[in-house]
Design brief:
Elements: H1 8-14, H2 23-31, E1 33-38, E2 43-45, E3 53-59, E4 62-67, E5 73-79, E6 84-85, H3 87-92, E7 99-102, E8 106-112, H4 113-122, H5 124-150, H6 153-161, E9 173-176, H7 181-187, H8 192-204, E10 209-211, E11 214-217, H9 220-224
Helix pairs in contact: 1-2, 4-5, 7-8
Length: about 230
């Protein structure tokens, strides 16, 4: 994808935050935005850095993470294509409180705070859309905390494999792990060893078939109902 020919207003128009904005509004936001190409392992931002923009992953994968005093990494969220992050940090006017890093080659869109505030001043409905987006992320994080507190490690892994599947015509699905198993394990508050052990247990039970990062689930309903003996 060539950034020089990338139609930024058109891309903004398909994002939930901006999809009912007029062409002139989209162009103003585009003028206050920039595209960045990041390589695997490149830093998006770090704790303590001033936040003057929020970001959208156009292509690739970004992880938000914290480092404990002992140096252990905890993955907080994985941000895939079409998803935004750091809106809350931008609005509260404080430095970033987590780190962000590209997990793969990534094209990142950064929307400047000045452009956002100017659009809010022109149309307060834009502020409501931004609040809705932040609220959805908060709801998701609360759901995650509930899962860590109330669900076993096995249930967390099954829930991850079946996430966003909904009702499908075929009960057979294939899940592509977007990042390393270690990163997913950290996201689920599990050790990499335990995560791998659960996958092998599910495979031995005939519930999944593992081919590197591809996991085939022959019967999603059977997997969802699985209870170890």
């Amino acid at each position: 994808m060539d950034e020089r020919t990338f139609d930024l207003p058109r891309y903004l128009a398909v994002l939930p935050l901006f999809n009912d904005m007029q062409p002139a509004e989209l162009q103003r936001l585009a003028d206050g935005s920039q595209l960045r190409r990041l390589g695997r392992g490149d830093t998006v931002f770090h704790v303590g850095q001033p936040c003057e923009e929020f970001h959208v992953t156009v292509v690739g994968q970004v992880k938000l993470f914290a480092i404990s005093p002992s140096g252990q990494e905890k993955v907080i969220e994985l941000i895939g294509p079409g998803n935004s992050f750091a809106e809350a940090f931008m609005f509260i006017g404080k430095p970033y409180m987590v780190n962000a890093q590209a997990l793969t080659d990534t094209l990142l869109l950064s929307v400047g705070k000045k452009a956002v505030l100017e659009e809010i001043a022109l149309d307060p409905r834009f502020a409501l859309r931004m609040l809705a987006g932040i609220s959805r992320r908060l709801h998701g994080l609360v759901h995650d905390v509930q899962g860590y507190a109330l669900h076993s490690g096995l249930q967390r892994v099954i829930g991850y494999l079946l996430r966003d599947q909904g009702e499908t015509d075929s009960n057979s699905i294939t899940v592509s792990l977007p990042v390393s198993k270690g990163t997913i394990a950290s996201r689920l508050s599990l050790t990499p060893e335990y995560f791998s052990r659960v996958l092998h247990e599910l495979e031995a039970s005939g519930l999944i078939e593992i081919d590197k990062r591809e996991i085939r689930i022959p019967d999603a309903k059977r997997l969802a109902a699985y209870q170890p003996a």
